[in-house]
Amino acid sequence: RITGNNNIGTWLMASVGIATCMAVIGFSFIPPSSIPTGNLAVYEGLLIGGSLLFVLLPLIWLKWRSRKSHD
Q: CB atoms < 10 A from the CB of 61, how many?
């Protein structure tokens, strides 16, 4: 529980969390020097493709379950 009588603490913690997530996502597009990535476009394409895959899979699953429950 975040202390305080108003929502300032909640908004502050949520803002710090969102800012941290955005920074980590941004830093993930910088390839590490210890891993031979080869072409930068391939590396970034794999990151974007993987992100899209993990976002779309649950949405497709929900759509499939919703359609199956209506039948």
A: 10
Phi-psi region of 37 (alpha: psi -120 to 50; beta: other; left: phi over 0): alpha
Is the whole model's pTM more than 0.90, yes or no?
no
Residue pointed to by tokens 């941290």:
20
Chain segment 2-57, per-residue pLDDT in tens: 666 678 888 888 999 999 999 998 888 888 777 777 788 888 888 889 999 999 99
CB-based burial of residue 31 (10 Å sphere; 0-12 exposed, 13-18 middle, 19+ buried)?
middle
User: CA dihedral defined by 61, 21, 49, 32, rounded to 10 degrees?
Assistant: -140
